Amino acid sequence: MENKLMSKTFFWMFAGLLVTFLTGYFVSHNEVMLINIFKNSTYIILCIVELILVIVLSAKVRTMSKNVARIFFVLYSFVTGLTFSSIFVIYELTSILYVFLLASVVFLVFGLIGYYTKLDLTKIGTYLMMALFAIIICFIINLFANLETFDFVISIISILIFIGFTAYDVQKIKRLGEEEIIDEDNLSIIGALNLYLDYINIFLDLLRLFGNSRD
User: Fold this and answer.
1) Do 148 and 125 form a contact (C-beta atoms < 8 A)?
2) CA distance 82 to 20
3) Which residues contact 114 (CB under 8 A, 6 or more apart)?
4) Least packed by Cβ within 10 Å: which of 28, 49, 119, 153?
5) 8 Å CB contact between 27 and 81
């Protein structure tokens, strides 16, 4: 089951990323949609919807049918794409593609580490989550302080956190596949969601560090 589970997990992860990036790219070339999203409260509403979808999917995936779980995941990827459209407006397309490649390499390396390492990464999960909450608080503070150096440090630490999560999540998915605890279709969706979030955050942090703006 393990190899089949990993294949399904990465298939849905890549499908989610494809939906997100294509949606973001399409919306960025539609001025009316951009205005409707970013010139009023729509953006905040979309962020709230994203959060609700993640919470519901994470909490209820084991009791959902596989089709409902897939719909929730694709819907989440689509809504994220709507908010993601801003990066295609702010950054040059070549820069986005370069960072996408860089993030893919980083993700692949640490995904392979998580898959093949003999070390038990279970214990680092709690520390990674604590660090994540801390960095979120720092990010919120910097929204008001607007310190460029602080933002740089936050991005570096965030990358370290999510490459850690990448290795941790891959190993967790591998072990769950070996245990054959629940239906692999639903397990692949929640695994895809976790890896999707890892990749997106690595990508966004790298984009903040190395992306070239259109200005």
Assistant:
1) no
2) 8
3) 121, 166, 167, 168, 169, 170, 171, 174
4) 119
5) yes
pLDDT tens digits for range 52-107: 999 999 888 888 888 999 999 999 999 999 999 999 989 998 999 999 999 999 99
**pTM above threshold 0.85:** yes
Contacting residues for 92 by C-beta, under 8 A, at least 6 apart: 211, 212, 213, 214
Nearest Cα residue to 204 out of 16, 21, 4: 21
**What's the distance, Cα to Cα, between the start and end of the chain in Å?**
50
User: Angle, to 10 degrees, between the axis of helix 184-210 and the axis of helix 148-179?
Assistant: 160
Residue 132 tokens read as: 């994540």
CB atoms under 10 Å from CB of 103, counted, come to: 22
Nearest to 175 by CA among 107, 121, 112: 121
Contact indicator for 20, 74 with CB cutoff of 8 Å? no
Q: How many CB atoms lie within 10 A of CB 188?
A: 26
Classified as helix, coil or strand, 91 is strand
CA dist 21 and 146 (Å) reads 28
Phi then psi dihedrals of residue 56, to 5 deg:
-65, -45
43's CB contacts (< 8 A; 6+ apart) are 37, 83
- Tell me the pLDDT tens digit for each residue of 27-52: 999 988 888 888 778 888 998 999 99
